[in-house]
Amino acid sequence: MLRLQIGREVNQCNHFLRMSLMSRRNPEIEQRLWQQVTRRRPWHTEPEILVPTECTPFKESILFAEPTNFRVLELGSGWGEYAGAYLKDHPDHNYIAFEIKVDRILNTLRLVRRSGAHALRMIPVNLNWYFEQILPPAAFDLVIVNFPDPWPKRRHWKHRLIQSPFPDALGSLLRPGACLQVATDYGPYARRMLSIFRQHPRFKSLVQDPDYRRERFASAYSTKFERIQRAAGKRPYYMSWQYHP
Ligand SMILES: C[S@@+](CC[C@H](N)C(=O)[O-])C[C@H]1O[C@@H](n2cnc3c(N)ncnc32)[C@H](O)[C@@H]1O
Predict the structure, then answer these.
(1) What is the average per-residue pLDDT within 206-212?
(2) How does pLDDT run across 215-231, given as a tens digit for each residue?
């Protein structure tokens, strides 16, 4: 009976957080969850795709094709427009992107291959299942989070990427002085992010009071979700936080 229930749970991948929470308490579910993450799919043979084989950080030599160069991490990279544009301008930078939707991952590969950059790696793993466990500590210079799913309903807030445990997990992956750039179109989520990072002792805003602006940074790139929001009359919030360990 328990086995049947576990099977159903594992198949409902969209209920990732509930599973994640359960998995931390139940080794059998933890094992099924890990099987989901590591199961090889045909498109995993693309050379840029990295699928973890054990629940430890990827070796830096596997993640970073240019180990001494600047290292970017994008969380929820969508259709890959940001990665494509960034790597066109910085083809020698390392760029690690987390994304779970297959069509978006494959589109990203197409865009980035056109740019000629060779240091993109994509991790097709649900961030809420495995994140800092599979990335090396103190490794990244820049983290980009553009338009994370806002989960507006209160009962869904627990699914949000940016909530209180996130800055600590993220901080463990950052080099001193590394930056986090965040964009969101959803005011209540922006206010929540501001509150979380303002209170955090190791993140300092790089944007003058009130710690956000309503125009994209000059060094940043437009994405599909940004254009959709702007076309709907919204003015997104842009933040930039620097990590001081
Ligand atoms: C609203 S879209 C924004 C995409 C992109 N950053 C942009 O601005 O165009 C959020 C993206 O995050 C991805 N995503 C959401 N939750 C995720 C998770 N738990 N793990 C990995 N990717 C996730 C979604 O598949 C989606 O592509």
Answers:
(1) 95
(2) 999 999 999 899 999 99
How far does residue 4's CA lie from ligand 1's centre (Å)?
A: 30
CATH domain 46-243 topology = Rossmann fold (3.40.50)
| CB 180, CB 241: distance < 8 Å | yes
pLDDT in tens, 119-145: 999 999 999 889 999 999 999 999 999
Taking CA atoms only, the protein residue closest to ligand 1 atom 14 is 76
**Distances, alpha carbon 220 to alpha carbons 30, 80, 154, in Å:** 38, 14, 31
Positions marked active-site: 149
Ligand 1 pocket test target in 15, 21, 101 with most atoms within 8 Å of CB: 101
Q: Give residues (CB < 6 A) around ligand 1.
A: 76-78, 98-101, 104, 126-128, 146-147, 149, 223-226
Angle between helices 2-11 and 16-25 in degrees, nearest 10: 140
Tell me, in angstroms, the distance from the centre of ligand 1 to residue 178's CA.
22
Dihedral class, residue 34 (left if φ above 0, else alpha if ψ from -120 to 50, else beta):
alpha
What does pLDDT average to over the chain?
A: 90
Kindly list the domain boundaries of the chain, sorted by start residue. 1-39, 46-243
Spatial CA neighbour of 183 closest among 45, 49, 74, 39: 74
Q: Which pLDDT belongs to residue 24?
A: 61
Strands 237-243 and 174-184: antiparallel
